[in-house]
Amino acid sequence: MAKSRPDWKIGVSTWGQGDHEKLIWVKDHFRNLQKFNKHGLDKATVMDLPGFKEYYQPALSWTKKFRKGNLREIIRCNELNYQAHALENGKPDIISVQACYPGVLIANYLAKKYDVAVHLHVRLGGFMFEKMLNELGSMKADLLSAIAGANLITATSNFHREQLKKWIPNASTFYNPVDIEFFQIGDNHKDYAIAIGRLEQEKGFDLLIDAIAKVPDLKVKIVGSGSEKNKLKNRIDALGLRSRVSLLGEASREEVKDLIQKCQFLILPSTYETFGNVLLEAMACGKPVVATKCGGPEEIVSPESGYLAEISADDLSDKIHQMLQNRHLFKAENIRKITTDHFSSNQWITKLEFFFREIS
Questions:
Q1: How do the pLDDT tens digits run along the chain, 360 residues long?
Q2: Which of 118, 146, 133, 102 is nearest to 14 (CA)?
Q3: Model pTM?
Q4: For a designed S-S bond to 183, which of 225, 243, 252, 284 qualifies (C-beta 3.0 to 4.6 A apart)?
Q5: What is the DSSP string of 158-193?
């Protein structure tokens, strides 16, 4: 937003979310005492970043079963961030929330108190959204009420929107963008395919390994980390694929770009995806893709950019075979044009601005 709309006055409110030093565990008394002491020394800050400011007001969090996980304090800290931004720039037109919990609860409180419109972009898939609701217990009704109070709700794909319909009947589709300036066509090609994602069950890397066993000679590099790492290692060894399938672990954004630019094509073997950002990153680099029909990819992959496979090792291996045979038919410039025409940052910000003007 800041890069595309330099005239917008953008503030980002943070409070230490995701920081394990701010998370109090029930039985970890010694570490908790250390965290409390360290938290007492933590100070509010304002950081100037290119085109926007980040406001930080520290808050602790803990189990939602006790005082709602310190939600009242988290809301108070975000209100202080809001006030600091408003004091400098005037009353905001929109509060845009990128996570349901606790973001939309914070936004709902601020919206009512200060009369500001709220945009909620839901990122959790259907089964993860339901899991979150179940874990909230008595707070479930509060969260659903806050979601219903948002002026605009967006989902990452048509598939995602349908998955959420049980709880959110009025969401609009808002595709994620790809940075086409960062992901460019490269010229140093090698003889491997690449797969990128968290090493978790829904990402289907076990399916990919089984499929590769049916495709002689193809080398595959898998980028990512997660709880399935050892299980996947054992599967690679059991199938005798150690010389052809590599688990590279985590990689920086620059490393990911370099690996994509040098690969033959990208494979996405997931059993469930609300969208599939990595497909766009590969396509922006002019690379064709093979993806499973797991939700979001069906709205990205076309015959000009690659193949869609059923969620099975047999069909995935068939589509990989087809890609190896027909790789020369896929033109990098044509594939990249799909991303620039439909999924670029310019397309994204234009639609976002349209949404914002509708509700502000």
A1: 999 999 999 999 999 998 999 999 887 888 889 999 999 999 999 999 999 999 999 999 998 888 899 999 999 999 999 999 999 999 999 999 998 999 999 999 999 999 999 999 999 999 899 999 999 988 999 999 999 999 999 999 999 999 999 999 999 999 999 999 999 998 878 899 999 999 999 999 999 999 999 999 899 999 999 999 999 999 999 999 999 999 999 999 999 999 999 999 999 999 999 999 999 999 999 999 999 999 999 999 999 999 999 999 999 999 999 999 999 999 999 999 999 999 999 999 999 999 999 998
A2: 102
A3: 0.91
A4: 284
A5: HHHHHHHTTT-TT-EE-PPPB-TTTS---S---SEE
